Every structure is written in structure tokens, then in C-alpha cells.
Queue: 2 jobs
Job 1
Amino acid sequence: MIRRAINNLLLRGKYIVNMANNLICAESKKSRPFTVIVEGNIGCGKTTFLNYFKKHKNICVLSEPIDLWRDCKGHNLLGHMYSDPKKWSFTFQSYVQLTMLNHHVLPTPCPVKLMERSIYSARYCFVEKMKRDELLSKPSAAVIDEWFQWLTKNTPINVDLIVYLRSSPEVVYRRMMERNRSEEKSVPFEYLESLHQLHEEWLYYKTLHHCPARVLTLDANLDLESIEEEYGKFEPHIWNLGILNSN
Ligand code: 8LK
């Protein structure tokens, strides 16, 4: 008799714990922002894209933390990486990975989070390129990869949509030269060409690495006047999905 009562209580307990777990899951799903990562080559117009969406108070826009990369406790890691890549690529990419992780896990009350690049492009495009060019030694690339594997398995990095600003290397090379960032003055055309190839294989042909979410591809070769119109076409995707996700 008592045994049966205990069993009953245990069963009920399990039921309540399950219910609570389901509620917690539903609640965390509800409060997690719909997360969009904006990807593409250097100079493809990510900043213009993000600026277009900054006007909405319900979208949290996280630009690439380039100021941090230029000033890590007084050290310009971006500058070091371009001026002596063999010596500094590991240091720079380790810091990029940390700052990207920070953006991925940053809480926001907004229903939509829009991030410029991600821990994925850090690993699949930039680290991959440096590894292939032997700017990162095999042991250094292995350490970055171990961190990447651990972080993507054990931290809440959620991506719901990837916007790929697809451009040709010729167009982005011209834009990069025009914007005249001091660190980027020595970047050769071939560098952009192979970064382009890595983005294509990852996001367009999907033959390299894994795609963490659905990809929307935009023509980023358009000049800056007509590109806003192109961005406008994608606004409903970001809004609708964001609203769906928060309901
Ligand atoms: O995007 C700003 C500059 O930083 C540009 O010159 C490319 C460089 N960069 C890099 O070398 N590695 C990176 C990123 C940017 C962004 C990620 C995620 N990894």
C-alpha cells in the first residue's frame, strides 16, 4: 500500500519535473532572439547592410568589434596581423574567436539579433585561409580548431539565418582600396580572391564545412545607390522570421 503510494508520488514527481523542463524550454525558446549572421568578403558592403537595419529599435545590430581588434589592452592586433602575419595570425584569430563568441552569447531584449560575421566565418574562411597559406602553423590551427569545436558544442551559439552578401573579388578589391583602411593597404587581390572562393564553397555551393542555418544570398555587386533597394526586399524575411520566433 505504502509502496504504491510512493510509486504514485514518484511518477507524479517525474511528471511535474518534465512539465517544468518543457516550460523552461518553451520559455528559453521564446526569449532567444532570432539570430541573423551577415557574411561576405572584405568590402562586400556588410556595414551598409547593417546600417540599413540599425534604424529599427527592435533589431539589435552587432558590428564587427574592429575597435577591440585594434586596441586589445593597447595592442593593435589587426595591424600586427597584416604587417607580420606569420608572427601574429594566431594571436589575432584567437582574439577574434573570443570577441565573436561574446557577440553570440550576448543577451538582448530585442526579438532580432543581427551580427556582422560569426565564429563560423572566423573558422571556415579566415582561419582556413591562414592555415592553407601556412601563416598559421599546423599546431596553432589545431588549437584554434579545438577551441572552435568545444565552443560550438558547449555554448549556446544559435544561428537562424545567414545573409550572404555575394560579391566578385574585383568589386570588393576596388571598394577596399577606396575605403583606405591603413591596415588593409597591403592586402593583395589574390587574398580577396581566395577568401571569395572559401565563402562560395561554404555558403553558395555548400561543399565545404557545415552551414549552421538557411542561407539567403544577395547580390552585393550592385552600386551603393541601388543596393538599399535590394536590402529592402530582404527586410520581411528578417522581420517575419523574427516575429515567428518570438511567438
Ligand atoms: O573586417 C575587418 C578586417 O579584419 C578585414 O581586413 C578582414 C579582417 N578580418 C580577419 O582577418 N579575420 C576575421 C575577420 C576580419 C572577421 C572574422 C570573423 N575573422
Job 2
Amino acid sequence: MLHVVPAFARIGEENAFAVLARATDLQRQGRDIINLGIGQPDFQTPGHIVEAAIKALRDGHHGYTPATGILPLREAITADLHRRLNVDVSPELVMVVPGGKVTMYMAILMFGEPGAEIMYPDPGFPIYRSMIEYTGATPIPVPIREENGFAFSAEETLSLITPKTRLLILNSPANPTGGVTPKAEIDALVKGLEKHPDVAIMSDEIYGQMTYDGEVHQTLLAYPQIRDRLILLDGASKTYAMTGWRLGWSVWPKALYENARKLAVNSFSCTNAATQFAGIAALEGPQDAVHAMLKEFDARRKIVVEGLNGLPNVSAATPKGAFYAFPNISKTGWKAKKLASALLEEAGVATIGGPDFGVHGEGYIRLSYANSADNIRKALARMGEFLASAKPT
Ligand code: PLP
């Protein structure tokens, strides 16, 4: 018998991938499926970014790079942070990693162990909890509530900190809710965190450029009082439609940087070299494609919200960021996962049940609007017909 360590019995998953697999299966069987389950932009990576990667390969960039990433990319990242968010970060504290997920993996590995508590948003990205469980630490969900605009509540978050808390994970703009935590709330949270100097903070800002209605993304990097324990998670996946390239980056406090570098050396060695050159082109090149994508997401967002609010017993808050809607379906009589499954199997619409993002996700489903406006309209019509005729099971 093989003796795999018990931690692997605790490791979780992202159900979005299972839904995608099922949706693809059904499509192969000839079913017409509209996929509102997947969390990736339905746009192509802009051409000049693709060209930069091809050029890098032609120029012979085929070898390992430094584990922390090539300096010109790290400099492009700091310049971008300065331009967009008006924060100063040294390239020495920036680490290039193969995708946004890698930063959370490293941060949770650094702070998770039996007896430690790690706080994370619920509903939230499922890998936070999965990795916390893997380390043996106790996951402490921070409820993200609809009545609070799906923003973090500084008061409630601070009330959950105990002497065992090692790491607090924040995410705004948020998956799966589309919530954006306002500056006043983040100000209050940081003020409270000053009383807990032993708690590290990981701020997942991968949707930082995706806000609507003039909503301003407030980066945690803007608070010098927590910079010595703040880990920033960011990357190119969502902003530049580059999910498959695997390009993320993090900003680490000086005291943790070496740990992150060593984890890189011990696992992936470095991020794909050509991808790193593509990253420079993404950050330093024209941003028109980013703006055009956001404009399109914004138009679809309005269609989704209006459509959802027209469905029987469904209500949807207007998401302020990312590209997800998180309608409240509790009045339909359906449990969220059952509804998501029935919508896929019977109505041909893929969505994700809220509980796949945590216990506080019951009563909600997630729709990604990374699909065409026509398909979104069609999906909403199917959902309407389904809800009007099917009996909750
Ligand atoms: N953080 C959040 C909140 C996400 O929603 C995702 C992807 O869906 C990630 C991180 C991971 O991004 P990547 O694909 O770059 O690993």
C-alpha cells in the first residue's frame, strides 16, 4: 500500500473545472450548452503581447531565468503599480510566478500549520480554503454578506482575529460576488490591524483593474503601516486575457521574500521565459484592449443584472467589479448546487452553485459574464423558462 501523507485527503478543488468538464461532455453529446460557469475572459490575448512572446522565442530566450523573474519585467510591474495605484515598490520585492494561484500557495504554505488560524473570505475563491486545510491550519471564514454590498466588513473581520491568527486573506474586487470593498472600510480594517502586528495579510487584487461605475479599487499597498507584513497577489490572467499563459506576480515584504524565492527554486524554478517577455509587452504596451474588454464586460453586466432581476424569485445585486454576478436564489425554493446542476442538465446553462465558494454561498449561484451578450440573453431566457416550470428538488 502506498503511504501518501494525510494532507492530500484534505486538499480541495475548484468546482468550476468540474462544471467545465461536464459542460464539455454534454456539448460532445450534441447538447447546446451556454457556459456561464467559467472564470476566464472570452477574449483573445492582444496581438502585440502574443508577438512579444514569439519574438522572445525567436531571439533565443529558451533558458531558465532568475527564479524571481527577469528584472525588466519586475521593473515593468513596479512602473505599472506606480502608474495605476501611485505606490512605490522596489523591483527587489517583486516576484514573477506562474499564475496568480502560486502566490496564495506560497503564502498559505508559509503561515499554515496545525494550531494556526488563517482567515479567508467566504464566499471566496475555493483554493484559499483548500490550501489552508492542506497545511493543517484551521480555516476561519470571514463572511462576505450581500447586505454589506459583498464587501469585507472591517468590524466583523477584526472581531474574528485571535492570538492564533497568522494570515488574513483579502480579495477585492471579489470572486465570486463581484463585490468591491470601499476605501473607508479598508481604512478601518488597516487601522484595526495595527493592533495585531503579528498577523500577515495577503491581498488578492487579481481583479484590480476590473471595476465599473467609477468604483475605485483600493490597493492594500497604499498603507505603509502594514507593508512589512503585506503580500500582494496580482497577475496578467484576467486583465490581459492570459489565463493559459500562467503569468502572475507578487509583492512580498522583505522578511518573506527569501522564503518565496526558495519555494520557487524548489518547485517551478522560474516562470516560462517567453511568457515573461509577453508580460513586459502587456504592461508597457497600449492598454486599449484592456479598456475595450472592460467596456464590453460592463455592457454585459447590465444585461445580466437586469435579466436576473426579471427572473421569478431571483434578485441580483449589481456587481461593482470582476466579471461575475452572484444572484440570490433563496426564494426559488432550490438549494443552490441543485439549481446549478439542474440548470446545466435540463436548461443547458452552466453556472456554479454558491456553496462551491464556501458555506456562506448557500442561496446564491455564480454567473460569469465571460460570454457574448447574445448568449447571455439566451441563457437568461432559458433560466426564466426553467424556473417558471420546474419544481425544486
Ligand atoms: N484569485 C482569484 C480571486 C481568482 O478568481 C483567480 C482565478 O480565477 C485567481 C486568483 C487565480 O488566477 P490565475 O489563473 O492567474 O492563477
